[in-house]
């Protein structure tokens, strides 16, 4: 039998452990989608695995932290689908890859980033302007984009960054005006 | 410990906040919930057991706090968890008691005769004592020595025993055989 202070400590641990379990389960749900990146023809297993690990870590931490972190993460998961899947779809539709380079994938990354930025800025769920929301949203979207565009090299990453900026900034600016 | 409608609403808001990840809601929620859960469990279990079960129930409530659906009533949800925990503890206790009874019966049947066997043996022993009481002391002495396996060697004792057994058979037949 515990004292009230010990009981409070144990209850807090029970709460945190349960949150961590739920967060890990949520992160594992994302893993199969992220694993699609391994289908890229010129992908590096090591870099893809690292990027996927980054996404899972972001998702787990944000889900565990809750509040605006979790809301930002949920918005970013939706937004991150575009830069994750558009380059893959482009590659599967028209095969223009050599063993080391994919020619029009940087353009697909730009388009994916643009769509992702638009979704992120116009996410219809509960919006929040806190720093936690912004950090979680940006972190998870970029991590998802990395999974989708890393195989395209620096050109892909630059396309992703440009697309995300072009997609989100105008919407955010318009909303504030 | 009944809560006023305002307290219920506050409890609901705190549980919703904790479910959302608001850690600041933990301390006030703990302070509010502990007496509620303790009272609920104490009403269903004996005093010696209630405190431990109430603590376990409170841990369950906090472990499941993140699953709380804001559309539900917080107090009803918490009491549901506490009552379930108390019921589980009571069932566990009853099962333990049943297992203990079964084990003790089993041990008794392994270590000794059943109650029926004991009663029959006791009746036979009483009947034999009655018959032995009608025999001569020398015969009784010989029969006891035979029964306790301390018979001396030699033909004299064997003949004495034979005669005593014959007389016992006759006496037994006279009393117990039609």
In short:
The complex is a heterodimer of chains A (177) and B (178). Chain A is mostly helical. Chain A contains six helices and no strands.
Note down, in words, how this protein is organized.
The complex is a heterodimer of chains A (177) and B (178). In chain A, 79% of the residues lie in helices and 0% in strands. Chain A contains six helices and no strands. In chain A, helix 1 packs antiparallel against helix 2 (45-65), helix 4 runs antiparallel to helix 5 and helix 5 runs antiparallel to helix 6 (153-176). Helix content of chain B is 79%, strand content 0%. Chain B has seven helices and no strands. The A-B interface holds A 1-2, 4, 7-8, 10-12, 14-15, 17-19, 22, 64-67, 69-70 and B 18, 20-22, 26-27, 30, 34, 51-52, 55, 58-67.
Give the helix level of chain A as a range of percent. over 70%
- The rounded Rg of chain A comes to 18 Å
Number of helices of chain B: 7
> How helical, in percent, are the residues of chain B?
over 70%
Beta-strand fraction estimate of chain A: under 5%
The total count of strands of chain B amounts to 0
Derived structural class of chain B? mainly alpha
Protein structure class of chain A:
mainly alpha
Spans of chain B with pLDDT under 50 lasting ≥5 residues? none
| Poorly predicted runs of 5 or more residues of chain A | none
Biggest β-sheet strands, sense, barrel of chain A: none
Rg of chain B over CA atoms, rounded to whole Å, is 36 Å
- Biggest protein-protein interface? A-B, 20 and 21 residues
